[in-house]
Specification:
Blueprint (H helix, E strand, L loop, with lengths): L5 E5 L5 H11 L4 E5 L3 H7 L14 H8 L4 E4 L2 H7 L2 E4 L19 H13 L4 E5 L7 H10 L7 E5 L9 H6 L4 E4 L4 H14 L8 E4 L1 H32 L3 H9 L20 H14 L3 H28 L8 E5 L14 H11 L3 E5 L5 H11 L4 H7 E3 L3 H5 L4 E4 L11 H7 L5 E4 L6 H7 L2 E4 L5
Helix pairs in contact: 1-3, 5-6, 9-11, 9-12, 11-12, 12-13
This protein binds nicotinamide-adenine-dinucleotide (NAD) and uridine-5'-diphosphate-glucuronic acid.
Nicotinamide-adenine-dinucleotide (NAD) binds next to α5.
C-alpha cells in the first residue's frame, strides 16, 4: 500500500477542514473525503457560496473552491468514507475532561475511541490510521488495541502526524510548514506506512522538512511544542506587571531580548493572556500525564504557565475596575475584539470571555464589536461559562456590528484582539463620542498610545506605565 489514492478524514473542524483542503489542492490524484457527525457543519462546507464555509481563515475559501467537487468532498456518511479509504485521519476534538478521573486536566478521549471503534467495525481491508488530533503520549496503543480486535483480519498501522498550524495563518502554515512530523512503528510495516504518508506530503513539502520519529516521540512533541510556545507568552506576560511598576516598557524589553538569536523574536508579544482551544488544554494534559507518572516537579513547572495566564486575565480586568474609580457598576465598557487572536472567528478560551465575565460580576454594561465573530457565538461563550443565566448575559452584554456605535457613550474601551483594522479607526471621532475622561485599556499593545494621548485619551497599554 505505498501509493495512497483515497483519504478519509474524520472531523471537519478547524484542523480537519483546512488540512484536508490543502492535501486535496496539492494532490489532485488523491480523493479526499472529510466526514463529520455535525450535519450543519458539513452543509456549511458544501455551501455553494464558498465564502460561507464554517472556518474563517485568510485564503482558505480559495483553496476549497479549487478542490471541492474535484477531489475534495465533505460528507456525513462516515462509514462509506472509512470503507473506501486506504488512509484514515482522525481529526476530532480532544477537549479537557469535564467529569470523572482527570476532570479539568486530562484530555477527553471519548471521541477518539468512538472513531477507533467505528473504523474497526467498518473496515474490510488493511488501512493506515493517522492521529491528526493532539493526543496524550501513548494514545496510539489504545487505538491499536481497539483495532486489533476487529475479528475480520484487517491489519492497521497507526501513525502520529500532529498538526502545527496556527489559526489565522492556517493556509500559509499548511502551504509551507516549518516541518511535518510523522511517528510510526519501527517494524517493516510501520516504516512502509510512514513512507506512504511521507509520499503524500512530499507532493509539496521539501523532504528535509518531513521528520520521522517513533510514535511516542511524535505524540509528546506536539504537547511539548504547544507548552513551549505558551510558556514564552506567560514568561513575557509575567514581566508586564513588573514593567508597569518600574517604567520599563515591555515592547522594548521584548525587542531587546528577542534580538538575541538564541532567544528569537517570536511569541514575545505581551497580551491580556493567551487563548485558543489548545494551549491551555494541552498544557493541562501534560501536567496530568506528568502527575500520573508521579513527576510532581515536572507537573508543577508546567502548571505555572497556566497559573500565570489566568492571573494575567484577572489582573487586566481588575486594573480596569481600579482605573474606573473602583466601580464599573452600570458603566458602559466597549470591547474591541472577541476572537482569541486576529484573523479567525474562533473564540475558544478567548481572554475576552474571562475579562467580560469578571466585569459582569461588577455589573458593567459591555458592548462588543468583533469583525468576524457572530453575535450568537458571543452569547454562547458566556452562557457556556455557566456563571449567570442567559437572560442575565443578554442584559449585560450587547453585540454591535459597528465599532463606532459600540464605542459611543462608553466610559472605557478594552482592546482584546489584535485585529489590524482597529489601528485605522478615526480615533478622534471615537473620542468625541465617549464619556470623559475617555479611557483605553489596550490588552494587545496594538494602538499608538502617544497618538491617542494627543487626542485626549487616557491610555493603559499592557506592560507600559500609563
Ligand atoms: P473542532 O471541534 O473544530 O472539530 C472537531 C470535529 O470533529 C467536530 O466538527 C465534531 O463534530 C467532529 N467529530 C467528533 N467526533 C466525531 C465522530 N465520532 N465522527 C465524526 N465526526 C466527529 O476541533 P479542531 O479545532 O479541529 O481540533 C481537532 C484536533 O486537532 C484537536 O485534538 C486539537 O487539539 C488539534 N489541533 C487543533 C488546532 C487548531 O488550531 N484548532 C491546531 C492543531 C491541532
Ligand atoms: C497554537 C500553536 O501556535 C500552533 O502551532 C498549534 O498547532 C495550535 O496552537 C494548536 O495546537 O491548536 P493557535 O492557538 O491557533 O496556535 O494560535 P497562536 O498564534 O499560537 O496564539 C495562541 C494565543 O497566544 C493567542 O491568544 C495569541 O493572541 C496569544 N499570543 C501569541 C500572545 O499573546 N503573544 C504572542 O507573542 C503570541
Amino acid at each position: 500500500m505505498s501509493q495512497i489514492t483515497k483519504i478519509c478524514c474524520i472531523g471537519a473542524g478547524y484542523v480537519g477542514g483546512p488540512t484536508m483542503a490543502m492535501i486535496a489542492k496539492k494532490c489532485p490524484h488523491i480523493k479526499v473525503t472529510v466526514v463529520d457527525l455535525n450535519e450543519q457543519r458539513i452543509a456549511a462546507w458544501n455551501d455553494p457560496d464558498v465564502e460561507n464555509i464554517p472556518v474563517y481563515e485568510p485564503g482558505l475559501s480559495e483553496v476549497v473552491a479549487e478542490a471541492r467537487g474535484r477531489n475534495l468532498f465533505f460528507s456525513t456518511d462516515v462509514d462509506a468514507a472509512i470503507d473506501e479509504a486506504e488512509m484514515v485521519f482522525i481529526s476530532v476534538n480532544t477537549p479537557t475532561k469535564t467529569y470523572g478521573a482527570g476532570k479539568g486536566q486530562a484530555a477527553d478521549l471519548k471521541w477518539i475511541e468512538l472513531c477507533a471503534r467505528q473504523i474497526a467495525r467498518v473496515s474490510k481491508d488493511n488501512k493506515i490510521i493517522v492521529e491528526k488530533s493532539t493526543l496524550p503520549v501513548r494514545t496510539a496503543s489504545a487505538i491499536k488495541d481497539i483495532l486489533m480486535h476487529t475479528g475480520n483480519g484487517s491489519q492497521f498501522q497507526i501513525l502520529s502526524n500532529p498538526e502545527f498550524l496556527a489559526e489565522g495563518t492556517a493556509v500559509e502554515d499548511l502551504d509551507a510548514p516549518d516541518r511535518v512530523l510523522i511517528g510510526g512503528d519501527s517494524t517493516a510495516e510501520g516504516q512502509t506506512a510512514i513512507q506512504a504518508l511521507v509520499d503524500v506530503y512530499a507532493n509539496w513539502i521539501p523532504r528535509e522538512r518531513i521528520l520521522t520519529t517513533n510514535v511516542w516521540s511524535s505524540e509528546l512533541s506536539k504537547l511539548t511544542a504547544n507548552a513551549f510556545l505558551a510558556q514564552r507568552v506567560s514568561s513575557i506576560n509575567s514581566l508586564t506587571e513588573l514593567c508597569e511598576k518600574t517604567e520599563a516598557d515591555i515592547n522594548e524589553v521584548a525587542r531587546a531580548i528577542g534580538t538575541d538569536s538564541r532567544i528569537g523574536p517570536k511569541f514575545l508579544k505581551a497580551s491580556v493572556g493567551f487563548g485558543g482551544s489548545c494551549f491551555q488544554k494541552d498544557i493541562l494534559n501534560l501536567v496530568y500525564i506528568a502527575r500520573t507518572y508521579g513527576l510532581q516537579e515536572v507537573a508543577d513547572y508546567w502548571e505555572q504557565v497556566i497559573i500565570m495566564n489566568d492571573h494575567q486575565k484577572k489582573r487586566f480586568a481588575n486594573q480596569m475596575i481600579r482605573e474606573l474609580y473602583n466601580t464599573v457598576n452600570g458603566k458602559k465598557i466597549s470591547f474591541l475584539g472577541w476572537a482569541f487572536k486576529k484573523d479567525t472567528n474562533d473564540t475558544r478560551e478567548s481572554a475576552a470571555i474571562y475579562v467580560a465575565d469578571h466585569l459582569l460580576h461588577e455589573q458593567a454594561q459591555i458592548m462588543v464589536y468583533d469583525p468576524k465573530v457572530l453575535e450568537g457565538q458571543i452569547y454562547f461563550d458566556l452562557d457556556y461559562l455557566g456563571t449567570r443565566t442567559s437572560e442575565e448575559n443578554k442584559k449585560g452584554v450587547s453585540v454591535i456590528n459597528d465599532p463606532y456605535e459600540a464605542c459611543k457613550g462608553a466610559h472605557a474601551i478594552a482592546v482584546l484582539t489584535e485585529w489590524d483594522e482597529f489601528k485605522d479607526y478615526d480615533w478622534q471621532k471615537i473620542y468625541d463620542s465617549m464619556l470623559k475622561p475617555a479611557k483605553i485599556f489596550d490588552g494587545r499593545n496594538l494602538l499608538d498610545a502617544n497618538k491617542l494621548r494627543s487626542i485626549g485619551f487616557i491610555v493603559q497599554s499592557i506592560g507600559t506605565k500609563s
